[in-house]
Amino acid sequence: MFDKSNAEASSSSLRTYSQYIPPRQEYRPPSPPNSSSMSSFSIHSSIEDQAFRMDNGRVYQAQNDDYMRLEGQHDALKVRQGGKNYLAPFQEVLPEDGRDCRLLDVGTGTGIWALEMASEFPEAEVTGVDLAPVQRPEILPNNLSYLMDDVSKGIPFPDGYFDAVHSRLLLAGIRNWKSFINEVIRVVRPGGLIVFVEDIGRFWVDDVSPEESRKRAPGVSKWSDYIEMALTERGFDSNAGSKAIPKLIEEHTLLSERQTVYTSLPLWPWSTDPLLKKTGELMIHDTLSMPETARLLVVDGCSIPNQRYDELVADYMADIGRPGANVVLPVWHHWARKKVE
Ligand SMILES: C[S@@+](CC[C@H](N)C(=O)[O-])C[C@H]1O[C@@H](n2cnc3c(N)ncnc32)[C@H](O)[C@@H]1O
Predict the structure, then answer these.
(1) For the chain, which residues make up each domain, given as ranges?
(2) pLDDT at 327
(3) How remote is the CA of residue 166 from the centroid of ligand 1, in Å?
(4) Is 58's pLDDT higher than 60?
(5) At what angle do helices 306-319 and 218-233 cross, to 10 degrees?
(6) 130 Cβ closer than 6 Å to some ligand 1 atom
């Protein structure tokens, strides 16, 4: 279980909380001439060599194509959420009256969610943390920083530092959700908000039995079986979004005002509902590129040859766009407030 002393003990001697909380400007390397395209991030030497390993979902994120995929997925999530970046009540804990407040985005990926939140809440000091450096093309707002760190070894901030902590789609990044959730709770202040937006290792058809879902989209179902197997093989819980996370939140004695909302994202524009149709349009790139993104995970995790994976992908693709298949990416939003004691 993470607590401050555990996290400190597991860190190198260089890695202390105080070093991770410099004034914001210390995160910003000077911009090279003619480069308005550098984002700001902090690299800690002890994790540099882990940043691009093939584990923890990292190897894909460094590729431009995965940036495109994640940003398309971000846009789809936003449309599905009614044009908002969240369903949880961030406005209740991030005051817009000039008072200092802080927001952490764990596993920030391309950093787009943190960037948009920094614009929406200009009074908030927003930090995005990820295993890899965030490389954004635009000039960042002054209230945003990106930090490079492995949160499975602890979140490098002191107790109660943040007003809100958000983590989204870390299914293939977190092996021990209990420790991670305890760590998130540790760094949020009493009364603060914790938010987990998570999927599972499977696409399915909503509102039908698992058997019917498999019948309607056999290729996607089979491919999902392999994703689940590969995640399990690598020590990840492929059902964390629907089972482990809500259970851990429900059982945690330091939490109150718990809520869960299910919002699935159509994988292509099969719906007649305008909002779902638009979501499906934005998901197409993700849907079509996901099999290549996951190739390494499955080929390696399930020990199958690339040729077998090609067959799985061909069957997956055969389902895409077929009337009646109506496949979605299931997503759960879980949030809670830390009790004021
Ligand atoms: C699927 S992406 C999601 C990115 C972003 N949250 C979003 O919703 O667009 C998962 C991200 O989590 C990061 N990640 C995974 N394990 C991590 C860890 N242990 N510490 C920090 N970041 C991690 C990965 O590097 C990747 O950028």
Answers:
(1) 4-338
(2) 97
(3) 12
(4) no
(5) 140
(6) yes
Q: pLDDT tens, 165-192?
A: 999 999 999 999 999 999 999 999 999 9
Residue 240 has pLDDT above 70, yes or no: yes
Q: What is the pLDDT of residue 212?
A: 97
Q: Which residue has the higher pLDDT, 141 or 136?
A: 141
Statement: residue 323 has pLDDT above 80 = yes
* pLDDT winner (highest mean) among 60-64, 101-105, 134-138: 101-105
**What does the pLDDT read at residue 29?**
28
The single-letter code of the amino acid at 69 is R
Q: Is 44 in the pocket of ligand 1 (CB under 6 A)?
A: no
Q: What is the mean pLDDT of residues 209-218?
A: 97
Q: What is the SS3 string spanning the chain?
A: CCCHHHHHHHCCCCCCCHHHCCCHHHHCCCCCCCCCCCCCEECCHHHHCCCCCCCCCHHHHCCHHHHHHHHHHHHHHHHHCCCCCCCCCHHHHCCCCCCCEEEEEECCCCCHHHHHHHHHCCCEEEEEEECCCCCCCCCCCCCEEEEECCHHHCCCCCCCCEEEEEEECCCCCCCCHHHHHHHHHHHEEEEEEEEEEEECCCCEECCCCHHHHHHHCHHHHHHHHHHHHHHHHCCCCCCCCCCHHHHHHHHCCCEEEEEEEECCEECCCCCCCHHHHHHHHHHHHHHHHHHHHCHHHHHHHCCCCHHHHHHHHHHHHHHCCCCCCCEEECEEEEEEEECCC
4-338 under CATH 3.40.50.300, yes or no:
no
Cβ of residue 109 lying under 6 Å from some atom of ligand 1: yes
The pLDDT value recorded for residue 98 is 65
CA of 322 to the centre of ligand 1 (A): 32
Segment 307-316 mean pLDDT: 97
CB 11 less than 6 A from any atom of ligand 1: no
Is the C-beta atom of 154 inside 6 A of ligand 1? Answer: no
